[in-house]
Amino acid sequence: MFSRKTILILQGSPTIEKLMEISHHRILRIPGKITFPQLKRLQKSLKQNSINLLNYVKSLGYSDTLDQYELLKLGIFNQLNFFQLLAGILILCTCIFHYQFPAWACIVAGMPALINILVLYLNKRHLYETALIAYFIFQPLATSFIFINSINLGLDLYFILYGILAVFFLKDIGFMIFSICFSMVNFFILSVVLKQFIYQLENVNNFLYLVNEGVTIVFIFYGLYLIKKENTVYQSSILEKNTDLQHKNVQIQLQANKIRENASLLEKQKEELIELNALKNKMFSIISHDLKAPMYAMRNFFGEVQQNKMPARELKKMVPVVINDLNYTTSLMDNLLQWAKAQMQSHAVYPQKVDIGNAIEETLNLLRRQSENKQIVIESDSKEGVYGFMDKDMLNLVLRNLVSNAIKFTPQKGNIKIGVHENCTLVEVFVQDTGTGISPEALKKINSNDFYSTKGTASESGTGLGLKLCKEFMIRNGGQLYIESKPGKGSTFSFSLPKAVY
Q1: Are 433 and 377 in contact (CB under 8 A)?
Q2: pLDDT tens digits, residue range 200-225?
Q3: Using one digit for the tens of pLDDT, what is the confidence trace for 175-193?
Q4: What is the three-class DSSP state of 65?
Q5: Rounded to whole angstroms, what are the CA distances from 222 to 76, 219, 281?
Q6: Which pLDDT value is given to residue 9?
Q7: At what angle do helices 158-169 and 139-148 cross, to 10 degrees?
């Protein structure tokens, strides 16, 4: 803790009036006692004011029209001019306080500082190109003018500084080359050729001469440091923006992929809805016509039988027709029920170990009457002990539909063969007939999952629903349905399913 008297003695002040005058002009206020915290606050205040001043100088001429890189370059340019202005003031004071330099020499020595003031003013007015011209043309000229007037203040290294800064600040290649050449020529002539000067600061005050040379070197490295620092900041900013852009691009790509997936899903759902709508229309058509017609025919037939209006001979004649309608109706109802069940329980598949031979025998017993009516010989080549892995109800429906179709399209006294092949992983079942076959156009419709039906060899009706269910059920059980046919030579329907593991 210091008293006011102690401070005056330390400062070597002879009077209190001078201190009071300084305090009155608010240059410095010294309380009766200065504590260490107060000194720290004063130091902090001076530091903050210096930072504010530097930030103000850097921001001279800032405009929204400039991009980030141009703003960085402008801030560096303003800083260098500001510190060169301070160095110019130091040089001017050196000349003034040494009586060996005449007044005109002091004026000449202050010219570079005036150029720095002009440049800062032009930047503040947003005249950036004019400021660059003023700096890289008039500043070397002002420095040369000092040397031409036989004054050597230790400023020769400034020409190297101008050349270095020209590379960074000047966009125009021609102007940049001119500025570099202009500065280097001046440096060579004034530092190498002209070595005799009337007024040399080195002879008057060697320390100040070395200070000027040192300040120039400091400017060169400080300028390079600022350029490197700001470029690093700018590159870091660019990298950060690139990282953000990449992150956003990834998010956009993910969103685009999600949109494409949703669009694909919507398109798939649209196709499924169209297919379901077509299937619905087909189902209504089947129910309203194919199922209703035989039921009405049987109702009328049995009504007439009940009223004893039909002779016994005619009644016996109609029985095969009725049986044929009943076979068609029961098969159709079975397919309709299985289809409705499949639609309500789209994922309900219960695969199990199934004896293929037993399933084929059950199907043949069920359809024996239908084959006997057409005197068709069915040959079964199924092997005992062959097991597949499939939903049993679905397997039975597939077998019924394939054998029923073979009977339907095989003429009187034809042949049908049912066989089984197996390998280490699959079981293949085939139903081969000697029927009418399928045309390429009809086969194309069947393979494209369209409804296709035609009359059998005995005018049996069909809907095309059976084959559609067969294909769907095989896919659900991990198998495939294959069709081979030649018109007039018969058809072979086969399907494969996984082999059961013992």
Answers
A1: no
A2: 666 766 777 777 777 777 877 877 77
A3: 888 888 887 887 777 766 6
A4: coil
A5: 10, 5, 86
A6: 35
A7: 170
**314: number of CA atoms within 13 Å, CB side?**
8
Strand partners of residue 419? 381, 430
Contact call for residues 410 and 457 (beta carbons, < 8 A): yes
Instruction: Provide long-range contacts, Cβ within 8 A and 24+ apart, for 133-142.
Output: 135/77, 135/81, 136/162, 136/165, 136/166, 136/169, 136/170, 136/175, 136/179, 136/182, 137/179, 137/182, 139/112, 139/115, 140/179, 140/182, 140/183, 140/186, 142/111, 142/112, 142/114, 142/115
What is the C-alpha to C-alpha distance for residues 361 and 340, in angstroms, rounded to an integer?
26
Tens of pLDDT, residue by residue over 480-499, are 888 898 888 889 999 988 88
DSSP 480: E
pLDDT digits (tens, 9 = 90+) for 336-354: 776 666 666 555 778 889 9
Q: If DSSP codes are grouped into helix, strand and coil, which group holds residue 62? A: coil
Pairing outcome for strands 490-498 and 480-486? antiparallel
At 1 the pLDDT is: 36
Element (H, E) at 261: helix 206-285
What is the rounded CA–CA span in Å between residue 31 and residue 4?
8
Q: In the block, which residue shows the tokens 């280097």?
A: 184
Report how far residue 321's alpha carbon sits from residue 324's, in angstroms, rounded to the nearest whole number: 5
Write the DSSP assignment of 285-346 as a string of letters: HIIIIIIHHHHHHHHHHHHHHHTT-S-HHHHHHHHHHHHHHHHHHHHHHHHHHHHHHHHHTT
Q: How far apart are CA 226 and CA 154, in angstroms?
A: 24
- DSSP class of residue 157 equals T
Place of tokens 């001019």: 81
